[in-house]
Design goal:
By secondary structure, the protein is an alpha+beta fold. It folds into two domains: 17-92, OB fold (Dihydrolipoamide Acetyltransferase, E2P) (Beta Barrel); 94-123, no CATH class. It has helices at residues 98-105, 107-122; strands spanning 17-24, 30-40, 47-57, 68-73, 83-90. Strands 1-2-3-5-4 form a five-stranded mixed β-barrel. The radius of gyration is 23 Å and the shape is extended. 10% of the residues are buried. One of the primary rRNA binding proteins, it binds specifically to the 5'-end of 16S ribosomal RNA. Keywords: Ribonucleoprotein, Ribosomal protein, RNA-binding, rRNA-binding. Pfam families: Ribosomal_S17 (PF00366). One of its GO terms (molecular function) is structural constituent of ribosome. Part of the 30S ribosomal subunit.
Length: 123
């Protein structure tokens, strides 16, 4: 009696994409992206910056801190990850501060240098 018409929607919903900077890549296959947006205050009409952090899936661990990346909305991958990496728009310079390199090699090395400098300046 009733006809069931199979409808296929030819227009698929576009997924939301955002562009931001990688602020952390410490977790395996996960990056944290900081996205800034300008909003207008509802009463005072003044523009202000709003920063949000998104956890995104980086399958090949290719991102470094400071990279400008494009992320896209996706179905939930884990508790916090609802975004995935689409592309690296601009790579960072790749320059790592000397203090971070020394801290990775030997954490006591940076402490002994600072104490030695303090003793020399005291004399």
């Amino acid at each position: 009696m009733t006809e069931q018409v199979a409808t296929t929607s030819s227009t698929t919903a576009r997924r939301v994409q955002k562009v931001g900077y990688v602020i952390s890549n410490k977790a395996d296959k996960t990056i944290v992206v900081s996205v800034e947006s300008l909003k207008k205050h509802r009463i005072y009409k003044r523009a202000y910056k709003q920063t949000k952090h998104f956890h995104a899936h980086d399958e090949n661990n290719t991102c470094q801190i400071g990279d400008l990346v494009r992320i896209e909305e996706t179905s939930p991958i884990s508790k916090l990850k609802r975004w995935r990496l689409v592309e690296i728009v601009k790579s960072s310079s790749g320059i790592v501060p000397v203090e971070e390199v020394l801290a990775e090699v030997d954490p006591n090395l940076t402490q002994s240098e600072t104490s030695a400098e303090a003793e020399e300046s005291a004399e």
